[in-house]
Every structure is written in C-alpha cells, then in structure tokens.
Design a protein that fits this description.
2 copies of one chain form a homodimer. Chain A is an alpha/beta fold and 359 residues long. Chain A is built from 12 helices and 12 strands. Helix content of chain A is 42%, strand content 15%. In chain A, strand 3, helix 7 and strand 4 form a beta-alpha-beta unit. Chain A binds a DNA duplex (16 and 16 nucleotides) through helix 2 and helix 4.
DNA sequence: CTGTTAGCGCATTCAG
DNA sequence: CTGAATGCGCTAACAG
C-alpha cells in the first residue's frame, strides 16, 4: 500500500541501507548509485516514514516552539522567524535533514505548558524553544525545570527566547539542561523609557503592568521603578495597575489612573497593545496626545504606528531574536555550550506620543 | 536509560501488552491491574515513546494546522481555537488519547505549504487543518490536491477552514480526499458591506483588495462588485487596488485612490488591518472619518475597535470556526463524511467609521 | 563505498 | 481478562 524504503531499494537495485544513506546524506555514496536511488525515490514518490526513522535513530526532526498567546503578534513574529530559520528560508530542502518546526500555544496556562512539554517529550523532539515570559510560581517553575531536565537528558535541545535563564528563578537546576538562553533586556529598556519621560518633565506617571507573577511583567516594572528611584521620586503603588497584555486592559486602566491621580501627565504601558488601549481611552475622553497626556508602550510591534501620533516605545528585535533561537535550535555546533546566555538589547524609540509635561 | 513500556510492565507484574492496553484505554482491563499499572507508570514517570507507538499503530497523534501568516491575529485566533479544542480546554488529559496540535506557518509561500504537507505526511499526522484562503494557481492547486489525496489515502483527516471546497478550484479531485470543509461566506459578507455603503448614498467607492490569486481576495471582491451591479452602478477597475493584507497596503492605497477619484467618499478594505492603514492615512491628510470619508474593513478582529471611530466591518466567527475545525479533526465520528461542507456566516457590523456620503 | 544483521518500543494478532 | 509472539519501517554498527 504505502511505499517503503525497501521498495525504493528494490527498484534502485541497492540495499535499504544505501537508500537510507543517500536520503540522510551523512555518509559517502557513489554519485552513480546516489542518482539511481534519487530517481527511484522520485518515481515511487516515496516519503520517509518519520516515526520509523525516529524510533530507529532515537530522535525526531520535530522542533517545538512554545508561545503564550498565538494571537499576539509579539509571539507570532518570533515564532514565524524561528520557523522560517528552521524550515529553510523558502522551504527549499527536499528530503534532507529537514526539520519540522511547529508552534504550540499554551495560552499562558501552566498546565498546557507542561502538557505540551510532555507531548514533545513523547515525540522525542529534537529541540524545544520556549518564548516569552515565564510564570513565577515556585511549584510550576520546579515542574517545568524537572520536565526540561528530562527532555535535555533525552537529547532534546532547550532554547529560551525572551525568558530569563532558569537559574534566576532561584529554584533551578544545573544550567546544563538549557542549551542556550536569549535574554531580553526588559529592565534596561523600561528604565530608558521612564527616564525619557522624566526628562520631559513628567513626575506623575501611571504604569499599566502585565499580569502579576510573570518575569516579563516584573522586569519591566522594575526598570520603571529603577528610573523613578534614580530620579529621586517616590514610587506610588497606586499608580501601577496590573492586567492582561491586551488592549482592554489599557483602556480600562486609564480611567482608574485618572481617579488615583487627576494630575497624571503620562502613562507607561507594559506593552504596545496595552498602550493602544490607553490611547483609545484618552481620545474618548478628549485628552490630546501628547499635549494633555503622553503615552508610551513596549515591543515596537507593527501596530505601534497604527495610532496617531505614533507610539513612543522600546524596540525589541523580535524577528532577529526568533531567527537566532531557530538557529541555535538546529545548527550543528551551537555557538556555546550549556548555560550559554545572550542578552538581546532593548532600544528606546521616541515618536510622537510623548511630549513635554503639561503641568 | 529512558524508561520503556517493558519497564512498567515489569514493575507492575504484568505483560507489556497489558500496559499498552490500559494506556490506550481501548480494551477491557481489570480494575485492579489497571490501577497497578497506572501506579507503576507514575512511579517510573513513564512517557510513551511517540515514534514507536506511531510506527506500530501506523498513525500518530500529531495534528497540523497550516496558516498563511502566524503574526496575523486572523490566523492566530483560528489556530488558537483549534488548538485548544484539540489539546483539551485546559490540557487536562494525561496519558490518554492526547493529540499534539501544532501550527505551521507557510508565510503565504506555496513551496512552504507543500513542504509542510510533506513533513506532516512523513509524520503520518492524524489530521491536517488548512486555514485561510488558497492560492489560485493551477499548478500549485494541483500539487496541493495531489498531496492531500495522498495524505488522505494514508488515513490523515483533511479539514479546510476558511478555504473553499477543493472542487471549486475546478482542478480538483474526488471530494473524498477532504473530510470536511468550513467555507467562509466572504462573498455575501462583502456584498452586504457594500450595500450598506450604497444605502448611505455613496457611489464613488474605493476598494483595497488583498493579493491577487487568492480565493479570499477574489470572493470578497466579487461580493463588492455584485452589490455594485445590483445597484446599477458600473464597476470602475481604477478604484480597485491590490496589495498584501497589511496596514502599509491600506495606507499607500488611499493616496492612489484619491488621485484616481478625487470625489471618493468611501473606501472598503479587504480586511481590518488594511482598513486601519486607510484610516491612518486619512487622518494624516486631515480627512475626518466618517464625515469626509467612510471606511470599512472585514473580519472584525479585536483591533477593529482600536481606531476612533471604531470600524464598520464584517464579522467572521473566527474563534468558533477554528474550534469547530479542531473538533472535526479529532472527534471520533465526524458529523458527516467526505465532501461535507459547512458554511460559516459573515455578519455585517455597523460602527462609527461609516456615515452618509458627503457629496 | 556497499550489503547484512539486528534491534528501536510499541500495538496487535492469537492463544489461553 | 491476560500473556506470548510477530512485525511496523528504518538506522546503525559491522563486515566485506
């Protein structure tokens, strides 16, 4: 029914082993036989049986990319970049060492994160790329760490992209479980952003943070507070609100912030999507941006220029980082061994949504 | 090193066959032994070897979801919905018939679409869900059709979500290759939208279409033209511009449209993202929406309410459709056999971005 | 450079 | 209800 390696071997008049060798290209084969085999493959329209080869080789060509929210471009951009890096820039490779890069959506749920990790473990995945902030819950961190350790032990490469090195959680295991870490410099980026606002004369600044217990949320908030402290300002907890990384959160937050501080002149959002919500709410109230209120975001997503004026934000090279993660996940000789950490810079981008403080 | 089924069997004092049976739960096993096995599984922290079981069973638990652009929420929403439907609402199931739903980003490239299909075929995927519009190129359609036929022949379920039934391409194969089709009613939705504008007195309406040779692009444009024709208006090709489904395309299009027709009073965009670009361009030119220019989109993405005023658009139940596709891909008894088609309705949503024609 | 020989770990017959 | 035997399709030593 379905054509197998043996069929190809038969038709090409060679042994199955030889066919396997030309297909995997990791062994010397005479050009003549190689051509013959390739022809047989084409004639029979043969497609390797993944499970069988994975079983025999004890490793598969699956690479899993875990994201917190697939509907959010922040993750979409990184995942897309990683995927195109892994599957080849334009789906070129034929039967070769082609990897299957797939993205798994955890929806921010700890359980699903673990479930996917188990599923990937079951598939004997070649690599796993974890993107975005991690949940800061001791129990869950420990569970994830344990799972990753097992994955690593089974030969799966672990790449962290935009997630702090595991050791930082305090809980965690020999760094030997992680192949490489791309750490976003959220803290410095956030600090620069708030410094920018302080330079413009703002002193009453609202902050719309992400969900609590997320590393990204915490680091960005810390950067904000660092800037405030250095400027000698006291941090007012009432001016920081937590919520999901979405537009609605920003929209709702502005009203609350104005109640807490009628003299508010600026709002920093934990990401661009939230900032867009803040902008919309400001417009609805007749507040001009930036004359009456300065608004800033984070990430520099394409939509940061969707609003008028365009958003001042902190640019994170998401595409580049994703591509790099894809490379680290599949390259033959990873640039560095276990425990390797690269810091991805965050750059302040000043646009029209921030201006001098009005009061 | 890695624990196998045999290890579990040994510890539970049963045969490997029995362990297999309790794990797959599709065979009667005494409650006592079942419990014993489960305990052994837990004690040993056993994880099924996917490739091995896929090889033996001749089918895997992999479900592939193909999307054109993972950074676009249009796809993200559908993919996320399908994925959560497949992997269980909250990653509950343990060792059971858990499927691994993964999304593959083709980036709109025909080659990559085919590559992913091959990779999925290689993995003996349980199902494949193709989302979004298809590319209308005879050669490519034929290649995809052939590939899908092979997948289907190998037992993989094929679900089309937001993509017209294959037969419509004209090229294509016995409907028996496709398990089910969820067809978006783009045509009717587009017609309703343009009718809405006509009712408001608009007669010079610009249309910013998607890329040429895409079913979605064509259907939406046809709906637009249908409405024009029924109203007795002549269709002016100069008022239709093609471009990618992104913001920049809409932004650039407005300028061109105004050159082609200075008396333009309305612009219909092929999707919300393009519409947002049109809105931004309008604001930059000092055109008030909707007083000077009415703008409408399509899809009703969350960002449709990001602009002020909010976008009049056509709502597509993306989440519901994605979830439905996920269900059809995994449910034991698909609601209907091969060639089954469900039409997903498109509903007009009138908001503030459209108003009476000014001239 | 190429053929032979063994399994990889699990799902199934088929007996009992 | 449970155990024993067989093979899924391929890769990886080993020889030649």
């Amino acid at each position: 029914m379905t054509v197998t390696l043996a069929d190809v071997a038969h038709r090409a008049q060679v042994s199955p082993a030889t066919v396997s060798r030309v297909l995997n290209g990791n062994y010397p084969v005479a050009e003549a036989t190689r051509a013959r085999v390739l022809r047989a493959v084409a004639d029979l329209d043969y497609v390797v049986n993944g499970p069988a080869s994975a079983l025999a080789a004890a490793t598969s060509d699956l690479v899993g990319i875990l994201v917190n929210d697939i509907a959010d471009p922040f993750f979409g951009i990184m995942a897309g970049a990683a995927q195109s890096r892994i599957s080849g820039p334009d789906g070129t490779a034929r039967t070769g060492g082609e990897k299957l890069a797939v993205v798994c959506n955890t929806g921010g749920s700890p359980e699903r994160e673990l479930t996917y990790l188990t599923l990937l473990q079951r598939q004997r995945a070649a690599a796993v790329i974890l993107t975005g902030g991690a949940i800061e819950d001791t129990e869950h961190s420990a569970a994830v760490a344990a799972k990753l350790a097992k994955l690593a032990a089974a030969g799966t490469r672990i790449i962290l992209c935009g997630r702090p090195a595991l050791t930082e959680g305090g809980v965690l295991p020999g760094s030997s479980t992680v192949t490489a870490t791309l750490s976003f410099d959220n803290r410095t980026g956030a600090r620069r952003l708030t410094e920018h606002l302080l330079t413009l004369g703002h002193t009453r600044i609202g902050y719309v943070a992400g969900p609590v217990e997320r590393t990204t949320t915490r680091h960005r908030l810390e950067g904000h507070r660092d800037a405030l402290r250095e400027a000698g300002l006291v941090y007012d907890p009432a001016l920081t609100l937590h919520g999901p990384y979405d537009r609605a959160s920003g929209h709702a937050a502005l009203a609350q912030l104005l109640v807490a501080e009628p003299d508010l002149t600026a709002v920093v959002a934990a990401n661009d999507t939230i900032a867009l919500g803040v902008c919309a709410a400001a417009r609805e109230r007749g507040l001009r941006i930036p004359e009456d209120l300065s608004v800033a975001g984070f990430d520099d997503l394409p939509s940061a220029t969707d609003t008028v004026p365009a958003l001042t934000t902190v640019r994170l090279p998401l595409y580049e980082a994703g591509a790099r993660a894809g490379l680290l996940a599949t390259t033959a000789n990873p640039p560095a061994g276990p425990g390797y950490v690269e810091t991805v810079p965050a750059e302040l981008v000043v646009r029209g949504s921030t201006g001098r403080a009005s009061k």
